[in-house]
Design a protein that fits this description.
By secondary structure, the protein is of the alpha+beta class. It contains four helices and five strands, in the order ααββαβαββ.
Length: 132
């Protein structure tokens, strides 16, 4: 699925984006923080796991997101992480790291399109929740 998605407009369809993310992480037993790097036409340049953690947290560093975005020549990113518990409500830490990544990427003119939380039974979108 990942090979087929590279070079396609991943965010042109909400259902395609969610299906892509669910396949990769909905049933993981540990939290993963991934970043989808997009070009100016919103085509997927790369999908990278930038943090793997425990059952309830995964480290991510805004500097590393910025570094990877620049190395892929990305115009935009979509942040994605899973909650193995299945509860897709954003935590205070989720909200804080999103704000930190947005702040790190803004001076570089790299847009954060969304931050998705994927669970076995659903998902949450920071954009839809008004958190982005």
């Amino acid at each position: 699925a990942q090979r087929e998605a590279v070079g396609r407009q991943v965010i042109s369809s909400w259902s395609q984006l969610l299906a892509y993310c669910r396949i990769g992480m909905a049933h993981e037993g540990r939290e993963q923080f991934r970043v989808l790097f997009l070009d100016v036409r919103n085509q997927l340049l790369a999908d990278r796991v930038l943090g793997t953690g425990t059952i309830d947290q995964a480290p991510v560093y805004p500097r590393e997101v910025a570094k990877q975005a620049l190395s892929h020549n990305a115009a935009a990113v979509i942040l994605v992480h899973n909650h193995p518990s299945g509860d897709t409500r954003p935590s205070a830490a989720d909200i804080a790291i999103t704000k930190a990544v947005v702040a790190a990427l803004a001076p570089l003119s790299i847009q954060v399109h969304d931050h998705l939380i994927i669970g076995a039974r659903g998902e949450s979108s920071f954009k839809a929740l008004g958190l982005l």
